[in-house]
Design a protein that fits this description.
The chain has helices at residues 12-23, 78-95, 124-127, 132-145, 162-184, 195-205, and strands spanning 4-9, 30-36, 52-58, 104-110, 113-119, 154-159, 188-189, 211-216, 223-228. The longest helix is centred in the C-terminal third of the chain and has 23 residues, at 162-184. The radius of gyration is 26 Å and the shape is elongated. The chain folds into three domains: 4-61, no CATH class; 78-160, 2-Layer Sandwich (GMP Synthetase, Chain A, domain 3), CATH 3.30.300; 164-228, R3H-like domain (Ribosomal Protein S8, Chain: A, domain 1, 2-Layer Sandwich), CATH 3.30.1370.50. 35% of the residues lie in helices and 23% in strands.
C-alpha cells in the first residue's frame, strides 16, 4: 500500500511520533523525510510557534509469513531412502547404549526423507529447554542420514510425542495472545522460537481477520510479533 502523510510537531522526534501514531506502525516500517527542520529558523521567526514537518511513507510491505510457505521438497530414490535409513539405524544402535534402559526408536522412510521417533519417558534431557536439544539432535541425524548421498536428507525427529504437545501449547498461546492484542489494541512480541514453532503461530493466526503476525530479528533470536491489523 502506497500511503504518504505529512506529520507535524514541535521537534523532529515529536513529528515522527505523531506520524507513527497516525499510521499505526513502527518506525522501521516507514521512510522519513524532514520537510522543515527546527534548526533552520530565521531570527525573525524565533518568536513564532515552532513547527517541524516530516513526510512519512509506508515502506513496501514484505510478507514475513514466508516461513509458512512449503519449501521445495527434495525427493529421494528407493536406494537413497534405504541408505539413509541404514545410516540412521546404525547410529541409533550406538546411541541407545548411552540412553536410559528400555529406550526404543522407530524409523520410517518416504520420498521426502525419514521420520524418527524415540520412545522413553525419561528423555527430558534429550529434548532440552523448549526443544532446543531435540532440534540440535535432529540436525545431527540429518547429517548422518545423508552420508554417501548427494542430496540433503530431511529427518524429522520426535521424542515421546513432544512435538504434538508443543504444537498444541503454541496454538493455545497464539489464540490467547491474539485475544489480548484485540482487547488492548497493542502489539505483543513473543519470545524467540525455532522456525518450526514460528510456523505454527503464523499458520494458526493466518485466517484471523483481526490480527496479523510477522517475524523479526535474526536467528537464533528471531521472534514473532502479533499486532492488530490496520483499520481494525
Amino acid at each position: 500500500m502506497d500511503k504518504t502523510i505529512i506529520a507535524e510537531g514541535r521537534t523532529t522526534n515529536e513529528a515522527i511520533e505523531n506520524g507513527l501514531k497516525q499510521l499505526r506502525v513502527s518506525k522501521d516500517k516507514v521512510e522519513i523525510k524532514i520537510l522543515e527542520n527546527e534548526e533552520k529558523r530565521s531570527f525573525f521567526s524565533i518568536l513564532a510557534p515552532r513547527v517541524v514537518k516530516v513526510e512519512m511513507k509506508l515502506k513496501e510491505e514484505k510478507n514475513e509469513k514466508k516461513e509458512i510457505k512449503t519449501k521445495k521438497i527434495i525427493e529421494l530414490s528407493k536406494e537413497e531412502q534405504d541408505k539413509a535409513e541404514e545410516n540412521v539405524k546404525k547410529f541409533m544402535e550406538e546411541i541407545l547404549k548411552e540412553l536410559p534402559e528400555n529406550t526404543t526408536y522407530k524409523v520410517s522412510k518416504s520420498e521426502t526423507g525419514l521420520n524418527v521417533e524415540i520412545l522413553n519417558k525419561n528423555l527430558g534431557f534429550l529434548i532440552g529447554y523448549r526443544g532446543e536439544t531435540l532440534y540440535a539432535f535432529q540436525n545431527i541425524l540429518s547429517a548422518i542420514a545423508g552420508k554417501g548421498i548427494d542430496k540433503k536428507v530431511r529427518v524429522i525427529l520426535d521424542i515421546e510425542g513432544y512435538k504434538e504437545k508443543r504444537e498444541k501449547t503454541l496454538e493455545e498461546l497464539a489464540e490467547k495472545v491474539a485475544r489480548t492484542v484485540i482487547k488492548t489494541r497493542k502489539p505483543v512480541k513473543l519470545e524467540p522460537m525455532q522456525a518450526y514453532e514460528r510456523k505454527i503461530i503464523h499458520s494458526k493466526l493466518q485466517q484471523n481477520d483481526k490480527v496479523e503476525t510477522e517475524s523479526i530479528g535474526e536467528e537464533p533470536n528471531r521472534r514473532i510479533v502479533i499486532s492488530l491489523k490496520k483499520n481494525k
